[in-house]
Amino acid sequence: MTETQSPPRTGVLPSTVAVVNLDHLRHNAQVLRDRAGSADLMAVVKADAYGHGAVPVARALHESGIRHFAVAILSEAIALRQAGIDDEILVFGAPLPEQLPAYQQYDLQVNVTSPDVARWVADAALSGRPLRTHVKVDTGMNRVGIHPEVAVDVIDRLNLTPGITIEGVWTHLATADEPGNPFTLEQIARFRSLLGRIRTRPRSVHLANSAGLLMVPESLRFDGRVLARPGIALYGLMIDEDQIAANDLRPVMTLRTHVQHLNVVQPGESVSYGRRWFAEEPSRVATVGSGYADGYPRLLTNRAEVGIAGVRRPVAGTVCMDMTMIYLGPASEPSTVAVGDEVVLFGEGGPSATEVAGWAETIPYEICCGVSPRVPRVYEDGQTS
Ligand SMILES: *Cc1c(COP(=O)(O)O)cnc(C)c1O
């Protein structure tokens, strides 16, 4: 096990760590590659690889053969280049004209999200170094992208512009994770119809996120080179827990902390801010060293469970900034839990991030992205240790 990321090492044991299992990451990448068939993967490592650490994740995925990456914003792409990742990198976000020289300098692929952006990239390519683009077509997400009626013309003109290559024409699905939602097939049909109208076949097309790749085979069925853009499934998570099991995805991140203090709380006494939990009998309560400042949402108050020595235990009372209390059972029963014991908030040995997300009324994406910068990422790598 090696610790490679911020915060700086202080020589003391951190109370909370996010253990990132790179073997599981590579396993998930292989699962997705098998499911993608002849399509290639563009691994989505935006938001610090969904909280897992973009550089170690991209390095591990590169070792397992992935050559395309995507991030959300320019600075994330530059950070990967500065760490020595020399694969293809697409930035999903819409560029500003003053950012284009950086795309050229770092050989980053720019997302053409509007006719204005198309003009800016054409100007930048004429006056400077070449630019590699992916043209984003809006087939119904209405986030960023060019409307299909306009996109045909933009693509045909960009294809004739010196210094510009169109690496891909692409779109994004709004409902791929809702089986049977007809809008997914509607978006795919709109995209297909657009492709039929452009003059030059693009070097690649791509639509599928994790849910598309695993649940919507039509999102991969295109002529020529197809890419898929999985994010969440690489990290072993899906909104639908059944999809995790059905595809043998393995959790990459385990958020764990330890028992700081043990209490016996007397009947009628309460625990934590606002007195939201009361003991009905003499009760064993553990105080553990994580709270919402670590990214353990306050909505988990009186709702979540944690894993201690393989046993599920409920959160007792309000989640605090840096501590959370856990009910261990009646004081009349013996307990083996001791100060210093490991507590799994989610991941291996505890509930999944998807379960935690359910309790916190959100999706697993927000749970893993939300693990805060003060939590050290500790990398487990069976291949190199
Ligand atoms: C985040 C994102 C993805 C990855 O989505 P997952 O659901 O995590 O697989 C793919 N494409 C775009 C445009 C995205 O923004």
Distance between termini? 7 Å
Mean pLDDT over the residues: 95
Helical percentage: 25-40%
Unreliable residue runs: none
Count the E strands. 19
Bound molecules: pyridoxal-5'-phosphate
Biggest β-sheet strands, sense, barrel:
9 strands, mixed
What oligomeric state do the depicted chains represent? Answer: single chain
CA radius of gyration: 24 Å
| Number of helical regions | 12
- Beta-strand content estimate: 15-25%
The 3D shape can be described as: elongated
Structure classification: alpha/beta
In short:
The chain is an alpha/beta fold and 385 residues long.
Structure description:
The chain is of the alpha/beta class. The strands form three sheets. Strands 1, 2, 11, 14, 15, 16, 17, 18 and 19 form a nine-stranded mixed beta sheet that branches. It is elongated and about 80 Å long. The protein contains twelve helices and 19 strands. The structure holds pyridoxal-5'-phosphate (PLP). Residues 44, 46, 92, 172, 209-211, 229-233 line the site of pyridoxal-5'-phosphate (PLP).
Q: Which tags fit this structure?
A:
alpha/beta; 385 residues; 8-stranded parallel sheet; single chain; binds pyridoxal-5'-phosphate; 29% helix
List the helices and strands and how they pair.
Elements lengths: L1 E2 L13 E5 H15 L3 E5 L1 H5 L3 H10 L4 E4 L2 H9 L5 E4 L8 H6 L3 E4 L2 H13 L3 E6 L11 H12 L4 E7 L11 H16 L7 E4 L1 H6 L10 E3 L12 H6 L6 E13 L4 E2 L5 E2 L4 E6 L16 E4 L2 E4 L9 E7 L11 E5 L6 H7 L4 H6 L7 E4 L5
Helix pairs in contact: 1-3, 7-8
The site of pyridoxal-5'-phosphate (PLP) has 12 residues, from helix 9.
